[in-house]
């Protein structure tokens, strides 16, 4: 705690209330110190410490692992979840709640579609690329590590017994936009090429010669599941927006289809990725 900083009161601060309950659960389950729990759930001890003081609300992977290892279940878990959501609202965390809903939809989808005119989408990022994108967004090291963990966890959809069909459309300049170092970009493009060889992953590149396209409005992510409404996640400068509103989803789907129609074939897209790789190899 920094000099002069007063501890939060769990009676009036939702984050502090959550932190106190997390500490109680840790101690009750036999984890007498924060590093012990951190090691068990693969989280740095500072993540545990900041969660227990109410300085930072834990991410879903950290929180869920915490609940599991501390044996918090049933009605008790429901109460913890209520406090968690209140803490996130207090933190201004509506975007995090939205994104948690997206992750849930993404993990259950049979079809995922992404249009990305700015960066490589999360499901296709290497760990180094993801880390650098979060770093340049101004997150501190703890936050970066938490977000990278979430991103890599999302990529486990490829390991499902029935993995989803993933369709990614990239604006060609994304392949040449320097994120980190040329070596980092070389590894990222190699990863894209490897992904494109999977039968369930289709990566299309929108040639820069196309110019203006239907996707100028920004990135779009669509998750389609069985027996559930299609979910759309759109990115913006301030906050991601998630919706299942049919009118908006249909419009976004039409936009995606138009962009994909203008994009290169899988084979031509792979050739364009190879060209980008040669460029990064020469740097």
How would you characterize the overall build of this protein?
It is a single chain. By secondary structure, the protein is α/β, with parallel strands linked by helices. It has two domains: 14-90, Orthogonal Bundle (434 Repressor (Amino-terminal Domain)), CATH 1.10.260.40; 101-281, Endonuclease, Chain A (2-Layer Sandwich). 52% of the residues lie in helices and 11% in strands. Helix 1 (14-28) crosses helix 3 (45-53), helix 1 (14-28) runs antiparallel to helix 5 (74-90) and helix 2 packs across helix 3 (45-53). The longest helix has 17 residues, at 74-90. The radius of gyration is 21 Å and the shape is globular.
Instruction: Indicate the structural class.
Output: alpha/beta
The fraction of residues assigned to DSSP E strands is 5-15%
Detail the poorly predicted runs: none
Number of helical segments with 4 or more residues: 11
- The neighbouring-strand order within the major sheet is 3-2-1-4-5-6
What is the CA-atom radius of gyration, in angstroms? 21 Å
The averaged pLDDT comes out at 89
The helicity comes to 40-55%
- Shape call: globular
Question: What would you say the CATH architecture of the largest domain is?
Answer: 2-Layer Sandwich
CATH topology name of the largest domain: Endonuclease, Chain A
Number of strands: 6
What is the first-to-last residue Cα distance? 45 Å
Overall tally of structural domains: 2
List keywords for this structure.
2 domains; 52% helix; Endonuclease, Chain A; 434 Repressor (Amino-terminal Domain); alpha/beta; 283 residues; globular; 11 helices
